[in-house]
Amino acid sequence: MEYHVKDLSLAEQGKNRIEWAEMDMPVLRKKIRERFIKEKPLKGITIGACLHVTTETANLMRTLKEGGADVYLCASNPLSTQDDVAAALVKYYDIPVFAIKGEDEQTYYMHIEEVLSRKPQITMDDGADLISTLHMKHQELIPNVIGGTEETTTGVIRLRAMAKSGALKFPVIAVNEALTKHLFDNRYGTGQSTIDGILRATNRLIAGSVFVVAGYGWCGKGVAMRAKGMGAEVIVTEVDPIKAIEARMDGFRVMPMAEAAKLGDIFCTVTGNIHVIRREHFELMKDGAIVCNSGHFNVEIDIPALEEMAVEKRRVRPFVDEYKLPDGRRIYLLAEGRLVNLAAAEGHPASVMDMSFANQALSAEYLVKNGKGLKPDVYVVPEQIDREVARLKLDAMGIEIDELTPEQVEYLNSWEMGT
């Protein structure tokens, strides 16, 4: 198929929203796209992208195409596609998209297959489904691949497991590990968009609630910070002792999920792991507890266990499913356990995605120039790219910073001078 979207008549609305997001993405729009138009660093390169189909992603796709690439896009989550954006990319920007919000699992993987059928030379992942499908089902395509990029913590975890086992057959740049990505996108983007998703789905008051955050990585830090800022009493659960201490010193209560389950009004998982909230936790939750996930996959909450426990299930609001337990307690699952910030809201604000997608674009350019000399492994974003993105962002914000004097440079590079 040439493309597969819900409805092309939504394209004008999508175009307006893409342009609105573009206004808040000056690094990608001006600093990178304008250079790409002139230099065409991706000329002749086919890029297969499995990303959340949002307004911000649309502007990344436009930049890659302006750089000379042939771009094909599918969704990285069945509920994260913005159908009007998908339609606009097809109709106004001539970028083939295979994504429909709410698609079933069979359609989801059919769309991944469509992208892989274009024989991409560079892959772009948001969770590593494109790369894993390529490695498991299409080994014949591997010699054609220069390298890939990965946007998420979950995807990087999967890729490092592939590399450790020897399964990874080409180099991948972990865009998620860039300082200009996880320090800002994961923390401020996930923090704001997760709260946004919960509020849109439930219209519940955050202030005065007990808000349980499972995981205190950069995403968990952001969610906890924003929940606290809205007046919630925040509890953090962790398995890492260092992160647990950090959460406590940041002012949050820290305890095992078995204890937090008795207290929480709202639960949000952001760990990247499986079954963080399980049957034994559901059994302890109060009537009316709200459970959601802002980690990448819908496995952090043990939904099969909740299905088995429930005597009745009904959808009470868009993105809110009520599970009634034998004793009459009700537990509310948001967005089918998928990313609540993208399923029930619009994902991260454009301003923070500006840096993340600047890293994606420059990493793709780096792979075209250097990928054939890299061994199959997971690589961090080169420091010069990370710093360049930060510099461009500051410049776009009209912010100037100091420079080291020659004396300071000499001091930092010497060892003779003491107290």
Automatic annotation (TrEMBL):
Biological role stated in the UniProt entry: May play a key role in the regulation of the intracellular concentration of adenosylhomocysteine.
Cofactor note: Binds 1 NAD(+) per subunit.
Cofactor requirements of the protein: NAD(+)
PROSITE patterns linked: ADOHCYASE_1, ADOHCYASE_2
Keywords per UniProt: Cytoplasm, Hydrolase, NAD, One-carbon metabolism
Chain residues that bind substrate: 54, 126, 151, 181, 185
Gene (name only): ahcY
Entry keyword annotation includes Hydrolase: yes
GO molecular function: adenosylhomocysteinase activity
Location (main, coarse): cytoplasm
Domain S-adenosyl-L-homocysteine hydrolase NAD binding residues, every copy: 186-347
Protein name as annotated: Adenosylhomocysteinase
Catalytic activity: S-adenosyl-L-homocysteine + H2O = L-homocysteine + adenosine
EC number(s) from the headed UniProt entry: 3.13.2.1
Source species of the chain: Thermovibrio ammonificans (strain DSM 15698 / JCM 12110 / HB-1)
Residue sites binding NAD(+) per the record: 152-154, 186, 215-222, 238, 273, 294-296, 341, 348
